[in-house]
Amino acid sequence: MLSNGEASVTQVSAREQDNTLPNIHKILVIRVDGIGDLLNSTPAIALLRESYPSAEITVLARPLNAPVLIGNPDVDRILIFDRNGKHRGIAARLQFYRQLRRERFQLVVAMQTAMWSHFVAFLSGATYRLGRYQKRFRSTLTHAWRGQYRKGETHEVDRNLELVRLICNGDGQRKLVFYLAPDEITAAKARLASRGIPPDTFLIGIHPGGSSFDKRWPEKQYAELADRLSHQYNATILLLRGPEEAALVRNIQAAMESPAISYAPETIRELGALLSCCDLVVCNDSGPMHLAAALDVPMVAIFGPTDHVAWHPLSENASIVRRDMPCWPCSAHQCKIGWECTKKLPVAPVWDATTEKIR
Q1: Which of 39, 202, 221, 329 is the S-S candidate for 290 at Cβ 3.0 to 4.6 Å?
Q2: Where are the domains of the chain?
Q3: Which residues, given as ranges, of the chain have pLDDT below 70?
Q4: Strand-pair partners of 152
Q5: pTM (2 decimals)?
């Protein structure tokens, strides 16, 4: 039986073991899904940079999420895969795969757990291919994480860090990476000023959209919350929306008694800059939520059926509000009770969370 001292020595020596792979000069990370998915991968990318400081790190992203990597010091290049545009069709897809193979990556990390990611890693011809052992083409991986995650247990950042630790040294830092240039913030302040919002305004940003219906808190509740914030705190309400959410914002404005300013940022980076100008942000579980978390903007995030343990905003300035249901964890798209967790969440707990943030 080992003494405490002997056990400690054994543990330290295991942590000092070098897990890095030899002769790695070019690394490809695959993440062609959502904004939040990519942002929650940035700590793992930072750990790759730390473990392979001289390697060129390229991220394969999509047009939607690629802009969040601009200015990221851990990323050397961004390759964009446009499934519905430039790379639509068999001929364009084959040409893209040939181009990827010519890059001669030594290591490909399939950060996105998907059959396509494993397939692309294999087609790249990379010597080492890292991914999770849960999807088809998993047999083509040279290094695989073989565990299972149950809902309500592990944050996505920790999942990604755990994956790359198989080939990295150290633990990494649980901090999202998203950089805005000073001129982007200056431009955002100028846009606000042009709409009659001076710098000393108490500005509350509300982003009522979301990637799917089940994640969206009802318009009536947002309108009531915005009115109360406007009346009690003399706050200016900035309703931010995506390109397909104009009707959603108009409905909120129509239901409000107080005025609210609506604005549709043209880019993800403009949205991030505007969020950084807000004193408080209220939003649904969404990509903008993760942008605000990366910027450490004070925030209240409303969750419905999504796994809030895995996807809560990773920021000490963020709080979440949700209605606990006996059917959670669930499969949201097969809900038999009309997403009551989101649609019947009352204003009171969201109001309490926002006032607590303001205090």
Answers
A1: 39
A2: 11-164, 182-358
A3: 1-16, 331-333
A4: none
A5: 0.92
